[in-house]
Amino acid sequence: MTEKKIRVKIHSQISDLTAINAVEQIMGNKGSYSAADDDVIEFSTDGVIRENGKNLELEYEECAEMGMENTVTTLIFPKEEPNSLNMVRSGENSAGLVFSDKEKRQPCSYNVGGYPFDFCIYTRNIDNKITMSGGVLKLDYVIEMHGMKTQRNRFTIKVDELKI
Prior knowledge:
The protein is mainly beta and 164 residues long. Helices cover 7% and strands 66% of the residues. The chain is built from one helix and ten strands. It has one helix spanning 17-27, and strands at 2-16, 39-52, 55-61, 71-78, 84-91, 93-100, 105-112, 115-128, 134-145, 148-161. A ten-stranded antiparallel barrel has the order 1-2-3-4-5-6-7-8-9-10. Strand 6 (93-100) and strand 7 form a beta hairpin. The two termini are 20 Å apart.
């Protein structure tokens, strides 16, 4: 197994689809929702990238300021199928998420503060250019709960090898 230390830069733009739908129902297509209403999260952290057999694994600690203290995220993707991705979170917040260009709708689960809930992920697009030398992952997906689309997330992660 090969492992390298990396710097991870994360940018996440989250749209509340429930709010957009409510505005459209009240105002029609003349609703006043814009991208400026989205939540944007950006942070950087150190992590590791490893080549583990047929997979690449990217691991980093989540940001405590976002309520994700003591949570580690591992992104796992097959080298031969980089547009398929498993996200595993462990620690105080645990999750198992699956993103796939082939099987776009995937059931997933999350456990926040001891309260588990199930939902579906609908993958709109994955563009994964991450290698052992670094790269960029762009992920666009929708979260669906009880058959209703509630949130769209456009997630970009940039990986740079740390020069020591």
